[in-house]
Amino acid sequence: MEDSTITPFKGHNGRILTLAYAPNGVSIATGSADGAIRLWDAGTGHQVETLEGHTHGVRAIAFSPDRQHLVSGDDGSTIIVWDTIARQIKGTLKGHRNWIRAVRYSPDSAYIASGGDDKTIRIWDVQSGASLQILKVHRDSVRSLSLSPDGSQLSSGSLDRTVRIWSTAHSCELLAVPLKTKSPVLSVCFSPDGSQLSVGCLDNTVQLWNNTMGDTAFESFKGHTQAIRTVAYSPDGAYIATGSEDRTIRIWEAETGRRVGEPLEGHENWVRAIAYSPDGQRLVSGSDDKTIRVWDTATHQMVMGPLEGHIEWVLSVQISPDGALMASGGRDRLLKLWDASTGACIATLEHPDYTRSVAFSPDSKCIATACDDRAVRIYDVDQRQLVRELTGHRGYVRCVQYSPDSSLIASASEDFTIRLWDSLTGKLAKAPLRGHRHCVSSVSFSRDGQKLVSSSEDESVRVWDVASGECTLGPLHCYEDRVMAVSCSSKQDCFVYSSKNRVCTWNMRDGLLVLPQVSIISSKFNSSYSRTSDQLGVSSD
Hints:
By secondary structure, this protein is mainly beta. The protein has 2 domains: about 15-180, YVTN repeat-like/Quinoprotein amine dehydrogenase (Methylamine Dehydrogenase, Chain H), CATH 2.130.10.10; about 185-540, Methylamine Dehydrogenase, Chain H (7 Propeller), CATH 2.130.10.10.
């Protein structure tokens, strides 16, 4: 396989605070605490130009869609528009009174939206540099902005715990959503029809965002005594399973929220990962006690295990779509394959660092892994051999997911990016998806594979169009508690989410609460897609 590694970009004298890809994927712009903007050749990593003009750290950058301009905002409240052809300052936009946190171009490159710590959003005319509108509604720092694909709507996320949607034509607020939370979003799940977004936050709540109605709803299940680390829907959508720091697994009726039977007990440490078999008759779990256990979902009895072999925490488990194999990855840097019928370990593949996420391809022929050595690896299941190594991330890879048709692999990383890879060639399918300002903790495909949802430790959730690579919704924010796990049902139009001590369920179409509130208590980074239903489960640390 051709080596796709690029030499690390070196040149800044301070921390890199922001970066952006040019729309054509040819160039990368980076902004730093040293006040400089540097342009890089995306193919070689060579520095092309240094743009000097800021006197404070550059915290926000965006290319215009027509690639003719670049806008940047700094900690001194100054916004500069650059001519990317002449590589000169085209104009300076002044009006903000504090740090600039976000800048965005409209799809037609005609105007710029900016937001910052002065709690305002400003709309600027690109040609004249005039301030067209000042939106003063947020009560705290505006941390993120996103424009709809047609440019008609602007969404803003703020530390005041709200997401607001604005009409760009009339400069008026269309919708304000109090997220009722105060903590970073770490896990999300997208509905199959794209109508809703499930968001989990650090305050033990989950929210379902209705893309058409703008509604949110909250729901939780009570029973666990400590943090919920992972959740998964049964393939038929009838049940929800949760794994917790209280060392137990619990099963719930999806429609009523009632607990089914007694807890599944046996693990001697946190339960971090669970996954249903394709027929829903068994449930596999991975734990910090370094073991894997298989449970009968009807009797709640352990039917296999404890399967021993890992010498450190088990961070991820998956059952192959054909039900023949189980895969597990852990802090011992191992990927293990198990016979699902006997529990025998049939293969052990070593990684150079923690194996944080494993994912079977929908045809069960391949396994993708995410590793702390910054690489994604694809293995042939039958041959038990490495097929290819996908390199390019510059931080730990936290999550991997196959698209429903097996053609793409999405990876989320601590380098703030999401990458979409061609699963056959191992090459990038498009330029990295950039926008998050901190570690991207999880990714999940919609049922039809047309959308991708990401969650990040920058306290936001974003929705991306897979074909274009554009962010079509978000960033959406919530603040009181990290989301530990979420799962989306395909048989019913609802989402389930878990955080520190709650599981929440919402209706996907009208954004209304499906079940009365039920509490539990946290979760960790794991994701599970049901191949026999329109469901996707994601959990995050």
